[in-house]
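Researcher: I need the complex structure. Ligand is 4'-deoxy-4'-aminopyridoxal-5'-phosphate. Inputs:
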Amino acid sequence: MAVVPRVDDHLFYRDLRRPLREIVRGEGVYLYDTEGRRYLDGCAGSLAANIGHGNRRVAEVLRRQAERVAFTHLSRFTNGPAIELADWIAERAPGDLSRVYFVSGGSEATETALKLARQYFVDRDGPETPRWKVIARRSSYHGNTLGALSMTGHRARRSPYEPLLNAFPHAAPAYCYRCPFGLEPSSCRLRCATDVEETLLREGPETVAAVIAEPVVGAAAGALVPPDGYWQRLREICDRYGVLLIADEVMTGFGRTGRLFAVEHWNVVPDLLVLAKGMSAGYTPIGAVVAREPVWATLRDRSGRFVHGHTYGANPLSCAASLEVQRILEEEGLVERAEAMGRVLLGLLRERLGSHPLVGDVRGLGLMVGVELVADRVTREPFPSSWGVASRAGLAAERRGLVVYPGSGAHEGRGDHVLIGPPFIIDATQVEELADLLEESLNDLAGELAGRNPH
Ligand code: PMP
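Model: Output:
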């Protein structure tokens, strides 16, 4: 039954000129709006709603926990769900990543990792330590708060705030479709990893606290999968110069790429593992930083406290929801399913879109697939940023009843992209439906753009 849409006169969203549709219900991989229209959630919101919408088990756990106790403050008390969730994560995280610090989302988590890296060196070497820089990469996204944005290598998101940002250096991305060095993966000898080392040397390794990277780049550039060996090289470089390696798995963590943590594809143990999104699959705001034992032990043995904290960190409600989500993920074999369905999805999208006039590249790992849109498939020239092709693609999909996660790129010489990352519970028929809808949406978009000249 259609519900009367409300007027959102007082909500302040990102897009100030376009009213948004109101979603009233979610079930599995589908969302329903006030007019009863159904959308296939092809991007799990922002690659967060990994177990799908409307899960009764999570709803029931939330209700029970809210009745028992919804809030305790971590400066004074701990609580059962936080203890159990920390145990659960520590048992499954790679290597000796075993100390879990809870926050409320991805940006809080990357900020926390940044501060933890700094405090580690202050505690270890004394307050005069010159180690404060974090080396990140261009075409990356680590969040929108100021520390996180300082690490983020995305010009458009940074530019209004430049005076507020820290001057962190940015190395080249691992971006094979547009290799910054004009090389081929088969013979490049991981030139982009060498660039991280060169950046470190240029800055002076004694001033660097950490290197941060997304195992597979998500929002900034649409599922950039690094070449094999890249993450092992990052680990070697960080070890060589005594710098912490931070894996930002806010998007990739908890199964998105077909492994519980994406660094497991390359058997690398980072010093800090940053998590959010799939942690609660969107049911409650939560994030975490998982530290290796020696990092945590340094703080314990030296200053004895982490000079940090947020009101909602480790709150029982979010932790209880997250724990239930993790149980569901494991009991229902959803990580394996993400891997299997991801393979089907990538194959299908390559088949359908491989020679589409707007599509330059289809890439991904697990259920995280990026489709890069270009004005010219041969030269790989992006559309002009003034055309807003990414957001047009998002709207074209929405009109067809498909939700995708678009991102613009022309401001830094990349193509615009759409990121596809449905809930892991998607089945083969729904993957087919997703591919059909995306192909139709891009055909619509091609029609919309026909006759316009990018020059
Ligand atoms: N890091 C990565 C890799 C992300 O994908 C995101 C969110 N897209 C963030 C950090 C920021 O997370 P949040 O939006 O929860 O603040």
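Model: Summary of the prediction. The radius of gyration is 22 Å.
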